[in-house]
Amino acid sequence: MQRRTFIALPAAAVLAAPHVARAQAKRQLVFVVNVSADFWTICRRGVEKANREHPDYDMSLLVPGQASAAEQRRIIDELLARKVAGIAISPIDPASSTEVLNRAASQAVLFTSDSDAPQSNRLVYIGTDNVAAGREAGAQMKRALPEGGKALLFVGTMDAANARERVQGIREALAGSNIEIADIRTDESDIARAKRNVEDALTRSPDVKLLVGLWAYNTPQIVQAVKAAGKEGSVKVVGFDEDGLTLRGVAEGVVTSTVVQQPFEFGYQSMIGMVKVLNGDRSFIPANKQIIIPTRIIDKANVADFQGQMRQLLSGR
């Protein structure tokens, strides 16, 4: 049996109790991500900015201990038990998560971000048009490999909507070109496995000329494996997002370019939007229930300026 110890509180603590209760009574808004990455650190800065503007709320970003749909479902159950007022989520496997997402939508404000779950009852998606981003990546692939050749794509899982949509966009952009997508390698958000996938590809497929990372952590693993194999220049690289190693690879010429999103806006606009809904305002939600945040192409010409911007965001200044 657990022993309980009762301690008399000082008068100051007793007097502070009503204040503590009020602080705990703040409505909670939580952004649930899919995997640990600098991408989400930038998103957290957006959440923090929104919270400074709305200090009457408790806003936070939650990184799952394991990058899986099952872990996200467990987190949602826990958040609903805490009676949070709003949840924004990047769902890992929307198809298998519809039931829990709908349950969340029935008990709290539910947004999706980064990766959508359009079959669920989420109020709005805030993030990238991933088909369009895939087309941009496809254009960069043609820029990197103008003569054509075999390419491999690397991503966490094809269960996620953003992965499927990016691949769709890439295929659309490559239609009629001489670039062939030889395979799509998945790693289930296991970073060590992501790197092994690239190492294996470089060993087993010496005729592959282009490697493409579709998620934030994939391109850094490609960069490291290409350098270790001494294939800088002979194997081209195109990436997504703004991981520090990816940007360094762009600056060094190892990465031709990377399609970057705006995760700061994912966090900021999700939190501001949930506050509006809780205050009775849904006028900002478009008829198609999608708020699209534009992407940018970062290459050697603009990477130095962009690196400075990222250092500032990641430092929290």
Give a short synopsis of this structure.
The chain has eleven helices and twelve strands. The chain has 317 residues and is of the alpha/beta class.
Mean pLDDT, as a whole number?
91
Strand content: 15-25%
Total helices: the number is 11
Rg (CA only): 22 Å
The geometry reads as globular
Descriptive terms for the model:
single chain; 317 residues; alpha/beta; six-stranded parallel beta sheet; six-stranded mixed beta sheet; 11 helices; disordered N terminus
SSE inventory with pairings:
Blueprint lengths: L10 H14 L2 E6 L5 H16 L3 E6 L6 H13 L4 E4 L4 H14 L1 E5 L10 E4 L2 H15 L4 E7 L5 H14 L4 E8 L4 H14 L3 E6 L4 H11 L7 E5 L3 H9 L4 E4 L2 H16 L11 E3 L3 E3 L4 H13 L2
Explain this structure.
With 317 residues, the chain is an alpha/beta fold. The protein contains 11 helices and 12 strands. It has helices at residues 11-24, 38-53, 69-81, 94-107, 130-144, 161-174, 191-204, 218-228, 244-252, 263-278, 303-315, and strands at residues 27-32, 57-62, 86-89, 109-113, 124-127, 149-155, 179-186, 208-213, 236-240, 257-260, 290-292, 296-298. Helix 2 (38-53) packs parallel to helix 10.
